[in-house]
Amino acid sequence: MTLLTVEGLRVGYGKVEVLHGIDITVGAGEIVALLGSNGAGKTTTLRALSGLEPVRGGKVSLGGTNLVGVPAHKIAAMGLAHVPERRRLFAPLTVEENLKLGGYLMRDQTAELKRRIEAQYALFPRLLERRLQLAGTLSGGEQQMVAIARALILQPRLLVLDEPSMGLAPLVVRAIFGIVKRLRDEGMAVLLVEQNARQTLRIADRAYVLESGSMIVDGPASALAQDPRVQAAYLGGVAA
Fold first, then answer.
1. pTM assigned to the model
2. CATH number given to 1-72+158-169+191-240
């Protein structure tokens, strides 16, 4: 079943159009990767889906419900959670305080919010150990765990991840990608923007390649890993 549908999406800044009518679909329970070089428009795409950038044209729907023009906090309540590039945690607050802020839409449901935070501690045991530590003092990998856990508090239907491996050691990246796979296996849809194309194509079900605001190729991740254009641009000329 298709969960997210994007048709002819156009976004720009001032007189400059950044996205030139792109199409994306994400089905329930699948990982879809969005690949591309720096400046291709990947982050802009995610921000537009989340209501953080105005849409100039096209359609965006989640579960058949229109998202264009809907405020970001209402899109979050509708089931789209966005983990931004560079995490964007509240550094002076503790891990648990950051997680509580992820549940701001259910702040009056104290018992349920506590239960959901405990569920994130079960998914990320390291965070339980760090629950009273200031987020700004955590390692990069721990901060990424907090960012993902914070997004999961509202139990979204679609998790949007922007460069979750940025600046992380390979071992930590494998752990983060393992969590993403687990979420998919449990039925969550994931739209993943990543520079680490090789590892991304190993876990994704399908992928799109975005260049200069336009889609140049899409298909099953396994097929794109063998595509000469993708190999040359993102895999060092070697199949993933």
1. 0.92
2. 3.40.50.300
